[in-house]
Amino acid sequence: MATQEKTPVENAQLKDIISHAKEYGFIFPSSEIYDGLQAVYDYGQMGVELKNNIKNLWWKSMTQLNQNVVGLDAAIFMHPLVWKASGHVDSFNDPMIDNKDSKKRYRADVMIEEKAAQYENEGDVERAKALTAEMGRLLEAEDLNGVRELIIREDIKCPVSGTANWTEVRQFNLMFSTQVGSVAEDASTIYLRPETAQGIFVNFLNVQKTGRMKVPFGIAQIGKAFRNEIVARQFIFRMREFEQMEMQFFVRPGTEMEWYEKWRDTRRKWHEAIGVPTDKLRFHDHDKLAHYANAALDIEFEFPFGFKEVEGIHSRTDFDLTQHQELSRKKLQYFDNDLNEEGKPYGNYVPYVIETSVGADRLFLMVLCSAYTEEEITEGDSTKSRTFLKLHPALAPVKAAILPLTKKDGLPEKATEIFDSLKYDFNMIYEERDSIGKRYTRQDLIGTPFCIAVDHQTLEDNTVTVRDRDTREQVRMPISELHSYINKAVSYRSIFEQLA
């Protein structure tokens, strides 16, 4: 039983997934020809398709299924006072500790959480809760010396050196700063946004008034965020440049818990609807709430390195809008004339906010880990292993592959004709190299749901053989039915119906 979270090198399953992601064009180390840049990755030709499909599905799930949720795309650079109001300038810190022997730096709170997870895995749940609670108390009191003593008392050692020769615990601000201005001495310090939520809050009234929105309503956004993570690891799970998909839902004060529970359940159903096994998901309620929240939980997925947060659901109260209102001296209030219809006096109020925040990169990794499948198959008298990506067809980078059986006898021309008839509606691949079996295998490895074989019978009766990725079963059908057959499988409709 592990005592620390395993690194990619130590975790065989994650190592295989990372290798697969690179070999088949999903994820590349950034600047690899220059030996890369730690915790920064590029999405390859298959990865960008999968990530775009994930983002598009999330976007439509928010804005298309909910008439009271609209979209926004705020700038990465924002006025520095935005981050003063949000608390990031003064308190967006991680407690860091260094091992004097290995010279490695770690997040002190993460090391303690890993120790608590070890106790929980060993069945000592009460000890795990007590350790987590004590850490929360020390961090809330800003007792960094107490945090160090807790690490020493729990005999937490550096996984590299194996020693407990620790430095003092220090706070490290995670925001990237830069200068804006044409002349150095006139430049002002601004920040790369560490989260996308603040762009929504400062545009609250712009969206509400121009869209004539009535509370309750939500604003959704997908965008890049940046955090100077000292401890960046576990592949794309924790990166310095990442993408967030957030929705801030503005509600009447006093109704926030009702909406908190609604979005909690809706978001879990969404993860299940895209094919994530139910037993791989769990809710984790926050023991220690952030200063702005009155309720918070994480939706966690069981990665190869353990259960970790994929999405956060938070009841943020009126903290953000109130902070921006006070510092900007601009009213960020909503006039609720529906109150009069309910027999209550008209009035302005600062709405409360329910937040759903999911990392696109973590979601990508969750989907990849869920889809990565190794199985034993029997063919005749022999048994062999098979690896494929069991992606939901709606998310798969390529929806179908057109494969002429040979490169002659008019089969390529017929296959090209079929490809051209489908390419306007689906992302397709045409391939004629190697045996049909090898081509099936290549498509399995990138998660293509359907392979369409064009053979000599196709020239006679306009039928093709369609192979299913998951079952490997093959069916014969007319070319005229291909579009509806593929569309039914890859459409978002089946997912939306589960959320209705």
From TrEMBL:
Annotated residues for binding of ATP: 227-229, 237-242, 309-310, 359-362
- Give me the segments passing through the membrane: none
Output the Gene3D superfamilies linked to this UniProt entry: 3.30.40.230, Anticodon-binding domain, Bira Bifunctional Protein, Domain 2
Listed under GO biological process in this entry are: diadenosine tetraphosphate biosynthetic process; glycyl-tRNA aminoacylation
Q: Where in the cell is it found?
A: Cytoplasm
Q: Which CDD domains match?
A: GlyRS-like_core, GlyRS_anticodon
Keywords (alphabetical) are:
Aminoacyl-tRNA synthetase, ATP-binding, Cytoplasm, Ligase, Nucleotide-binding, Protein biosynthesis
Please indicate which superkingdom the organism of origin belongs to: Bacteria
Instruction: Report the GO terms under cellular component.
Output: cytoplasm; extracellular exosome; microvesicle
Catalytic activity annotated for this protein?
Answer: tRNA(Gly) + glycine + ATP = glycyl-tRNA(Gly) + AMP + diphosphate
- InterPro entries reported for this sequence: aa-tRNA-synt_IIb, aa-tRNA-synth_II, aa-tRNA-synth_II/BPL/LPL, Anticodon-bd, Anticodon-bd_dom_sf, Gly-tRNA_synthase/POLG2, Gly_tRNA_ligase_bac, GlyRS-like_core
The EC number(s) given in the record are 6.1.1.14
**Molecular function terms, GO-annotated:** ATP binding; bis(5'-nucleosyl)-tetraphosphatase (asymmetrical) activity; glycine-tRNA ligase activity
EC class of the enzyme, as a word: ligase
Location of the Aminoacyl-transfer RNA synthetases class-II family profile domain: 131-397
Q: Which residues bind substrate?
A: 107, 195, 242-246, 355-359
Subunit annotation: Homodimer.
Q: Which PANTHER family match?
A: DNA POLYMERASE SUBUNIT GAMMA-2, MITOCHONDRIAL, GLYCYL-TRNA SYNTHETASE/DNA POLYMERASE SUBUNIT GAMMA-2
Q: Which family does it belong to?
A: Belongs to the class-II aminoacyl-tRNA synthetase family.
> Its biological function?
Catalyzes the attachment of glycine to tRNA(Gly).
What is the protein's name according to its record? Glycine--tRNA ligase
Instruction: Report the source organism.
Output: Pontibacter korlensis
